[in-house]
Amino acid sequence: MTDTAKPEEAQGSSYQERHRPASEFKSRSDYLDHELQIMEPKRWALNLPGRDFRFEWEDLVPAIAGTIGITVMYSAVMQAWAAGLTEKWDHVTLGAEFAIEVVRVEMLIPALLFCIISSGFINPRANLGGNHGPMIPLISAIALAGAHPLALAILLGIFGLLLAYFKGGSKLVNLTSEGVAGGLLVFLGFMGAKSQITSLFDWSAGLEAKHAIDYSLSHVAFIILAVNIVVYAYLARIGKRWLAIPLCSIAAIVIALGLGAGLDLKFVTEPGLPNLNPVYWWGSTDEGWMLGLPNMEHFIASLPFAILAVAMWSPDFLGHRIFQELNYPRKTEKVLMDVDDTMTTCSFRQIVGTAVGGGNITSSWGTYMIPAAIAKRPIPAGAILLGVMCILVAIIGYPMDITVWRPVMSIALLVGVFLPLLEAGMQMVKDTKCSQSAGICIFAAFVANPVFAWALTMLLDNNGLIGDKDRAKTLSFTDRIVVPGLAFVICTVAMAAVGMLPGIPKLI
Asked: In the chain, where are the structural domains located?
């Protein structure tokens, strides 16, 4: 991309003084590039609309995408907690109404405190604290291991704050080469896309039996996917991929309803507010989560999962920052997501969100950051809009039923997260050295999981055993051995403890 900033613009002048109206630029893209280049957001200080940033209509896209994505993720998390805890404890019976109420808690308080206030006004360099997607499949195992959501949140928050304080997150990101990062993104994109495509086909094939109809709807998934492939390809061709989530989601709804597959779409979540009293959720064993306050056994059971979750933050954060670097123009370092600040935000969001009754396991908000980066927009304005949308959805209720409907859920995640991840990973594999690191990272991910693959290939790559051998010569002993070695040991031990290494019985 070209540098659209004028040479005569004083580098020390304010954002207000350097701002120019969109009409002065040849294209909308040039205007957005210029906005990114002149912004200088303050860290942990007040940032104001007009003075430090502006709202643009492009900010609506990541806000809508993030709202859809987080509603889907939160619903999956709370349903998994409810199922696992009900199976683990005889006195616990948590159903669909419980899950909806907890989703509403998570969408109200954290949206206000950490989307609008924190990332919107206080530190626009910190990405929002969203959902830790890779941990969702583990939640049932976490519950069955005897963990307590509040104990897990406290430990995760403490570990995250320690890592952020010692700048560990940014250190790990800087030590991850483009080849390793590219391989990680390719694997995550491919596996995520495969999962959502399979889920969509399973949904359409199962409608006949589920609703006792005498005709098949198994073709609906294929038609939805085929149409959206064309829509997504056209948007990519004209440079408007940031419109993919809303347009493709609308296309999925229209096609599904038009072909008679709307049997699952029911509006059952009525308007209202959840109970926002922490005592209700954690004060006793006969209301809320029905678990009471955590004890020492709960903390011990939660410990390995908290270590694992924080260990998985660095590759997650890395993928989101890469999207900014790939899509932003030159001289935009001041608006790039700060990894350590994001870890700080996520840590506080984890503790506060769970303390008031939530159950989310947080991480950098990918369904917001990826569309925002593609749309070439900084964090603050979209974060404020996203927070407002989450609050409205939580209060109104009915939109939650649309966002968790399978065609919308799968298509939104496909075009908004997994396909962009796949594309970004392929862009990062630029030469033979990168392809070697990427290939081994993908291979290791198939053998075990993405976290193991990232930790192992980072260690090998930084020592010149794979990838660019000359790069290893420029690194210190600490960067080659100590930091990657500790990351590998911690990740491996944590995964072994909870049974995430194939063929090795869990240690707890």
From this structure: 57-179+269-424
